[in-house]
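Re: [ENG-882] Designed sequences occasionally contain unexpected residues at chain ends

Forwarding the minimal case from QA. Structure tokens:
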């Protein structure tokens, strides 16, 4: 995995994914990753946003020991409280367009969390021109403290069986054709801020 120092480290993956998904996004989305947090205060795990002092359209965040998946500038949220785990955890967030019931967060293969807020429609999800950020949110002032590995993004809603398979076999290469980005984070020296991280999705 890659070590994030909680001070200046994060990955700016640019606007390519946001532009590919576009505005009024009517598709589904799954974010799958492994995290080993060292901090639980205000740590951005993943975001698609302008990274200029807004929460973003899609956000995964650890805030005051709450682990949450947020949509549409955090107007809708699913979160768990009392999250202070410092071990490796497999986290999967599934956005199912038009279905709040099927939009879920999985922690180590189990569906978790309490939902609140107004669930967005496709017209609320505008991703074109937005940055994909791994290890921060809102701005560079809110970085992730800990380690992260195997970040995968799919333009589909993975099933519970597919999520369980990824949890039980983390070394497996993703097979769904909807994989749009994959960052294994195995390149170079994980302690080096100069490490280059490649997208292995071949998309």
């Amino acid at each position: 995995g890659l070590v994030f120092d909680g001070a200046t480290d994060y990955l700016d993956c640019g606007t390519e994914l946001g532009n590919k998904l576009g505005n009024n996004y009517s598709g589904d989305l799954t974010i799958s990753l492994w995290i080993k947090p060292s901090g639980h205060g205000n740590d951005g795990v993943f975001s698609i946003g302008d990274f200029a002092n807004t929460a973003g359209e899609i956000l995964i965040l650890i805030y005051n020991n709450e682990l949450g998946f947020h949509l549409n500038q955090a107007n809708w949220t699913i979160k768990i409280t009392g999250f202070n785990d410092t071990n490796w955890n497999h986290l999967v967030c599934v956005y199912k367009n038009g279905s709040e019931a099927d939009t879920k967060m999985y922690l180590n293969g189990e569906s978790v969390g309490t939902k609140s807020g107004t669930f967005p429609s496709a017209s609320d999800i505008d991703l074109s021109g937005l940055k994909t950020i791994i290890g921060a949110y809102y701005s560079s002032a809110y970085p992730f403290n800990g380690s992260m590995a195997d970040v995968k993004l799919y333009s589909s809603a993975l099933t519970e069986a597919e999520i369980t398979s990824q949890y039980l076999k983390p070394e497996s290469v993703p097979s769904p054709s909807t994989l749009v980005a994959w960052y294994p984070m195995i390149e170079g020296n994980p302690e080096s801020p100069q490490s280059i991280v490649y997208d292995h999705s071949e998309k």
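QA comment: On inspection the terminal residues look reasonable. The longest strand covers residues 145-154. Proposing we downgrade this to a documentation issue.
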